[in-house]
Specification:
The chain has 3 helices and 12 strands. The protein is α+β, with helices and mostly antiparallel strands and 214 residues long. It is globular and about 50 Å long. The N and C termini lie far apart (62 Å).
């Protein structure tokens, strides 16, 4: 009798945790449901295995979910790095060196390739893109830990969506890569449902040289 009660208690705790995790995911997804365009001003902190000090930069992210889907990420002012996605193509531009590279969006499991996939808006889309590792709630935030599915899993060890427990909105992203490096992206300002021009996602490459970045 005691063993049966104990087993029921353990199973109940497991179901409660699973339900709590899915609830946090659904709460976040609900905030994305009717958002077609998005602009985010962020602070990025990167820790590389090859450097002792951290790299901290300001940047801006634009997402347009209309049509085939577009994405633009840039850091620095003036921009030091620009990454865009239109459909299945990822474009990386380095204005200082006057170089660029095109590659399939899902070719490598980098943090940028994961972000270029955009934020899911339904539970079905979330489950197709990610495996839910677990949700940890602390203070005013939920930490939704996932592993990307498919090719994107190759470079990413764990991806964390940090959301507000009260409102469900995304506040930050954290990425741990398999090479030991990590990246934190804190959202400083978010604007939704604003007009975005097609030119924003098609940088002018006049005078630039094609290359293969490491």
């Amino acid at each position: 009798m005691t063993v049966n009660v104990l087993l029921i208690g353990v199973l109940s705790v497991g179901l409660l945790r699973a339900d709590t995790g899915e609830t946090a995911v659904k709460q976040w997804l609900a905030t994305n449901l009717d958002v077609d365009t998005l602009k985010v001003e962020f602070t990025q902190t990167r820790k590389l295995t090859s450097l002792k000090s951290v790299i901290r930069q300001k940047g801006t992210l634009w997402v347009d979910r209309r049509g085939e889907g577009s994405f633009r990420w840039q850091t620095g002012d003036p921009p030091q790095t620009i990454v865009t996605r239109k459909g299945g193509q990822l474009l990386i531009v380095r204005p200082r060196s006057g170089q660029y590279e095109r590659r399939p969006a899902g070719e490598s499991g980098s943090s940028m390739a994961v972000l270029a996939e955009g934020f899911p808006r339904t539970l079905d889309e979330f489950q197709r893109k990610y495996h839910l590792v677990g949700v940890k709630s602390r203070g005013e935030v939920n930490r939704i830990n996932v592993q990307p599915r498919g090719q994107l899993d190759r470079g990413v060890q764990i991806l964390t969506f940090v959301t507000s427990r009260s409102r469900g909105v995304l506040q930050a992203l954290e990425v741990k890569l398999r090479d030991g490096s990590s990246q934190q992206i804190v959202f400083d300002k978010v604007e939704r449902r604003l007009p975005l021009s097609a030119e924003l996602f098609s940088p002018d490459l006049s005078g630039y040289q094609a290359t293969k970045f490491k």
